[in-house]
């Protein structure tokens, strides 16, 4: 049967002879050197350097990611193909290596096996009737290669696909009933990663259905069928029968395979199980080169073919030999690999060959036939239309046609005029088809809407199918021509319709029809090919002005529909959470859908005029915020209605939790309005129209007002829930402080912790995280207030304070909840920290408080550098062998003059503190020095004391410098504290050697009162605490009477 590819094959010898004769004549008349240089110049490809670089990257990528065994006539070595590409693209070695390295770094494609199950013949008959109902399971097993070179050498097994390949990677053909020679013609795309350890598996099965014995006996034809009945009786009902399988290693396949494969058995019972006809093709998906990602496969292949043909022509011209039109093995291999990997159809390859043959004189029709296969037969309209266009092009190029029709119009112009006329005629036919049966504006609008939608669908088909055919064969932009013609026709009808509607009030039904028509026109305008493809403006430019009178109707209907839906949703809401994870109710979901529909309507409207678009957006935001507040009122009223007849307070609390969650969900939805309505893009559009800050003051003010109202409603609901728990918390804390002294603190707080565990778990289950966190914050603040009041009332009771301290520690753990509750920043407030410090002190015993007091005085001593009150110099050491503390009091200096004569009579009192650690050691005193502000004592004291109490916190040597008065009490010069823990000889095993001098500035007690002393003073029943406080108060009083003079 003749094909379009077969006709030009008769002319190549004549064409080649004519080319040779012309070359000889020109060579005799021109300079040979100039003629040779001219012949070496490659033909023009109409490709920029950037396009050639992308095409070169595509070719290198094709060679590097080659799949399958080579064809017998193709080149096997990749290095030979890369060398050929470097020559064909005229690449320098450095540039070639650079491009090769770039391509090697690109991401690999997804390797696929395109498998077509054609048919089978001679399969086993498994049914009683002697036939089978065959179907195939197929897939790729990865990671395990087939052992050996032939299928027979592997271990036979049944159901390879079903047992070894995951179900999601298994494909199945249709079931062909009652046949031994089934025909499927089904194609599957199977992905794999490594061709070296991947195998194709196909299992063929006989579909068995459960039948009665009577049915099987009715199908019985011979004794073999009777044997099958007995055999089937021994197997499970509905179990499919194995017919055979095919296993092929992918690395043994060529890029394209088409052959019959024997069906392998699992046993030797039936070795001959028939054959299966399979077609394979190794292809790529998601290729990384820019050309593959940005251009159609056919276009890239056409450019690659053009480049290689140009190189072949140039190479033969350089050798002064005539080219017979046959491509080199390297070029044929590269083109075959590229077409196969990109799954380019035979027809497109043939079309590319003919186009290059038509544009390259030296490449005859023999070249087109040799490098591309003939197009496959197809019944689709697009392929038929393409072949017709190709025939027209070839026919117009024939010499006989030019002789018979010398003055004919050029084919592209003739086809263009025909298409334009046909487009107009098609429009009028469609318009008649959509003519309304009943007259009226509403029916006319609906008919016009249907017409526009049909036009949009036709333009889409033209753009994706027909335009490529006409563009490739005749260089005609069918889509641009059709769009320009149809938009003029549509504009005239729409403008007439909107003008007729504008004269009367717009009903809701008419408004809906106009809105749908407006949206369809926007879709039509989005198909505009652009100013480069047309001259002047479009008839549809500014079409939105025709619909301006309908905008109020659109906005009102949007709000009315949303309001009605919200009211219906709330009325049907039972205030029950949707699930354990979704804690809001059905009305919140419906409300979110309403808001999404409003946002969708706003995006569909997308009014072009900036100022009017701003006012429309303001209206949308205003309606949305109004709906939110209306919903709050409706959902609260619904909660009151449902809880009115409820006697169970727990059920009412559940409803309140759901209401609060619904409001929180609503707040989240409202917060997305700026994104859904594209405020940023609107602000850029209206920047030159509105005053600065007007959008911020209008839209954001509306949104913040709505969010503030929602926040208030949520806080009110959470506060109501919190009050129900605050009563129980206060009752348990009050019981905690009134328990007997015999109850341990850990046992005392147990009822409070159980109460909180039950209530907080319940609320955590019924509240969303945001509301639960707000509730925890309120309860934490209230609990801290109760604990602080309790701590103030139990200030003088260490036991009660210890219970409150334990309660605070456990409550902190409870409210933190291992990171699921309040964060540490919310827990550790100033109130918490102050309460923690107070309870730490209040729960401490009196002796421990005295010890803490001396620790603070030692710290004060270490931080004091000024000798404003004077200083004392001592040498102190500890002799562990004798358990003696040796103190050498050397001197004092710069003492305050406390007597009226301008001097003092100083002496030093030495005391080991705290006294309860050194009860047996009495204070020591130095000699009194008369009228001396810089006394030199030079006295030594020894204290017999074990090392253990000296190493405790707060253990110190208190040096009190006093002014001796004969008639009254001694005056205080100052105090110095020498810590015992750091004393030489106390920690080490060796005896101290030379002891250094220590100079201690004198200090005064705090004049404003120490919190530890205040706490000790509150413990009226503790004699030791009262005695210590009296002594320290006396020292503080003495210090206040002899404050240092300024300037000293």
From TrEMBL:
Pfam families, sorted: C2, MUN
Residues of the MHD1 domain: 515-635
Membrane topology, from the record: Peripheral membrane protein
GO cellular component: exocytic vesicle; late endosome; lysosome; membrane; recycling endosome
Main localisation: cytoplasm
The organism's place on the tree of life at top rank: Eukaryota
Domain MHD2: 746-853
Location(s), subcellular: Cytoplasm; Late endosome; Lysosome; Membrane
Keyword Nucleotide-binding: no
One GO-annotated biological process of the protein: exocytosis
InterPro entries (UniProt xref): C2_dom, C2_domain_sf, MUN_dom, Munc13_1, Munc13_dom-2, UNC-13_domain
Keywords: Calcium, Cytoplasm, Endosome, Exocytosis, Lysosome, Membrane, Metal-binding, Phosphoprotein, Repeat
Family, similarity comment: Belongs to the unc-13 family.
Role summary: Plays a role in cytotoxic granule exocytosis in lymphocytes. Required for both granule maturation and granule docking and priming at the immunologic synapse. Regulates assembly of recycling and late endosomal structures, leading to the formation of an endosomal exocytic compartment that fuses with perforin-containing granules at the immunologic synapse and licences them for exocytosis. Regulates Ca(2+)-dependent secretory lysosome exocytosis in mast cells.
Listed PANTHER family: PROTEIN UNC-13 HOMOLOG D, UNC-13-4A, ISOFORM B
Protein name: Protein unc-13 homolog D
The organism of origin for this protein: Leptonychotes weddellii (Weddell seal)
């Amino acid at each position: 049967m003749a094909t379009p590819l077969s006709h030009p094959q008769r002319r190549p010898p004549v064409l080649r002879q004519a080319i040779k004769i012309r070359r000889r004549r020109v060579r005799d008349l021109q300079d040979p050197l100039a003629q040779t240089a001219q012949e070496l110049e490659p033909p023009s490809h109409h490709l920029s350097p950037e396009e050639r670089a992308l095409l070169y990257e595509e070719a290198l990528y094709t060679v590097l990611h080659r799949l399958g065994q080579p064809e017998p006539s193709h080149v096997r070595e990749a290095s030979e193909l890369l060398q050929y590409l470097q020559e064909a693209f005229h690449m320098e070695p450095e540039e070639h290596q650079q491009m090769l390295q770039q391509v090697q770094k690109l991401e690999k494609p997804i390797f696929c096996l395109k498998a077509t199950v054609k048919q089978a013949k001679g399969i086993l008959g498994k049914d009683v009737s002697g036939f089978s109902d065959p179907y195939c399971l197929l897939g790729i097993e990865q990671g395990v290669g087939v052992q050996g070179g032939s299928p027979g050498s592997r271990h036979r097994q049944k159901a390879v696909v079903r047992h070894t390949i995951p179900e999601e990677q298994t494909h199945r053909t249709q079931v062909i009933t009652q046949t031994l020679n089934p025909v499927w013609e089904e194609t599957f795309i199977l992905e794999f990663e490594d061709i070296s350890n991947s195998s194709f598996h196909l299992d063929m099965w006989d579909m068995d259905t459960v039948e009665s014995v009577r049915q099987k006996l009715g199908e019985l034809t011979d004794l073999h069928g009777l044997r099958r009945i007995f055999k089937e009786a021994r197997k499970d009902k509905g179990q499919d029968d194995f017919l055979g399988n095919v296993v092929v290693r992918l690395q043994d396949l060529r890029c394209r395979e088409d052959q019959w494969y024997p069906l392998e058995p699992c046993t030797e019972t039936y070795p001959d199980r028939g054959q299966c006809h399979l077609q394979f093709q190794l292809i790529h998906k998601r290729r990384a080169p820019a050309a593959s990602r940005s251009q159609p496969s056919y276009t890239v292949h056409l450019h690659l073919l053009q480049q290689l043909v140009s190189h072949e022509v140039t190479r033969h011209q350089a050798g002064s030999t005539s080219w017979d039109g046959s491509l080199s093995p390297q070029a044929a291999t590269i083109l075959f690999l590229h077409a196969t990997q990109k799954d380019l159809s035979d027809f497109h390859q043939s079309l590319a060959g003919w186009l290059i043959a038509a544009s390259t004189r030296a490449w005859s029709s023999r070249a087109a036939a040799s490098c591309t296969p003939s197009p496959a037969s197809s019944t689709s309209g697009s392929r038929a239309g393409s072949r017709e266009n190709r025939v027209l092009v070839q026919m117009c190029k024939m010499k006989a046609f030019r002789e018979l029709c010398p003055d004919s119009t050029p084919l592209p112009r003739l086809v263009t005029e025909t298409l334009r006329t046909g487009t107009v005629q098609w429009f009028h036919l469609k318009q008649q088809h959509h003519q309304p049966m009943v007259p009226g504006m509403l029916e006319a609008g609906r008919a016009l809407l249907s017409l526009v939608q049909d036009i949009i669908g036709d333009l889409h088909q033209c753009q994706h199918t027909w335009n490529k055919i006409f563009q490739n064969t005749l260089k005609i932009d069918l889509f641009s021509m059709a769009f320009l013609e149809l938009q003029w026709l549509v504009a005239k009808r729409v403008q007439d319709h909107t003008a007729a509607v504008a004269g009367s009030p717009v009903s809701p039904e008419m408004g809906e029809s106009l809105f749908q028509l407006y949206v369809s026109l926007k879709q039509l305008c989005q198909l505009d090919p652009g100013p480069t493809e047309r001259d002047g403006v479009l008839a549809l430019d500014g079409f939105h002005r025709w619909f301006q009178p309908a905008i109020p109707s659109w906005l009102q209907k949007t709000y009315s529909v949303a309001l009605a839906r919200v009211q219906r949703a709330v009325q049907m809401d039972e205030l029950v959470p949707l699930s354990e994870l979704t804690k809001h109710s059905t009305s919140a979901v419906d409300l979110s859908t309403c808001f999404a529909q409003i946002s969708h309507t706003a995006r569909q409207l997308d009014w072009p005029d900036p100022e009017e678009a701003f006012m429309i957006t303001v209206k949308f935001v205003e309606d949305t915020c109004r709906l939110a507040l209306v919903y709050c009122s409706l959902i609260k009223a619904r909660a009151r209605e449902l809880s009115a007849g409820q006697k169970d307070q727990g059920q009412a609390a559940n409803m309140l939790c759901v209401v609060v969650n619904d409001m929180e969900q609503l707040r989240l939805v409202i917060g997305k309005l700026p994104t859904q309505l594209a405020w940023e893009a609107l602000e850029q559009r209206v920047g030159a129209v509105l005053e600065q800050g007007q959008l911020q003051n209008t839209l954001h003010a509306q949104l913040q007002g709505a969010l503030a109202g929602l926040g208030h409603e949520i806080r009110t609901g959470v506060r109501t829930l919190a009050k129900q728990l605050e009563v129980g918390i206060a009752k348990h804390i009050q019981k905690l402080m009134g328990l007997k002294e015999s109850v341990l603190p850990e046992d005392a707080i147990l009822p409070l912790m159980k109460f909180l565990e039950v209530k907080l778990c319940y609320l955590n289950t019924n509240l969303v995280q945001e509301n639960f966190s707000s509730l925890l914050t309120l309860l934490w603040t209230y609990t801290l207030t109760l604990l602080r009041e309790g701590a103030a009332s139990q200030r003088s009771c260490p036991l009660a304070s210890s219970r409150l301290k334990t309660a605070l520690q456990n409550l902190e753990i409870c409210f933190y909840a291992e990171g699921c509750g309040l964060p540490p920043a919310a827990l550790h407030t100033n109130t918490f920290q102050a309460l923690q410090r107070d309870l730490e002190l209040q729960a401490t015993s009196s002796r421990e408080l005295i010890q803490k007091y001396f620790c603070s005085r030692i710290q004060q001593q270490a931080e004091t550098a000024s000798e404003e009150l004077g200083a004392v110099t001592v040498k102190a050491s500890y002799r562990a062998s004798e358990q003696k503390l040796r103190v050498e009091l050397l001197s004092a200096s710069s003492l305050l003059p406390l007597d009226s004569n301008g001097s003092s009579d100083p002496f030093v009192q030495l005391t080991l503190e705290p006294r309860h650690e050194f009860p047996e050691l009495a204070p020591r005193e130095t000699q009194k020095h008369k009228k001396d502000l810089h006394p030199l004592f030079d006295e030594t004291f020894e204290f017999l004391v074990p090392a253990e109490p000296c190493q405790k916190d707060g253990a110190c040597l208190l040096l009190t410098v006093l002014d001796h008065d004969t008639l009254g009490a001694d005056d205080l010069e100052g105090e110095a504290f020498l810590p015992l823990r750091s004393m030489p000889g106390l920690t080490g095993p060796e005896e101290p050697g030379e002891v250094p001098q220590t100079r201690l500035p004198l200090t005064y007690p705090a004049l404003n009162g120490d919190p530890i002393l205040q706490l000790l003073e509150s413990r009226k029943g503790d004699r030791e605490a009262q005695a210590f406080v009296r002594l320290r108060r006396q020292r503080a009083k003495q210090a206040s009477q002899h404050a240092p003079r300024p300037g000293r």
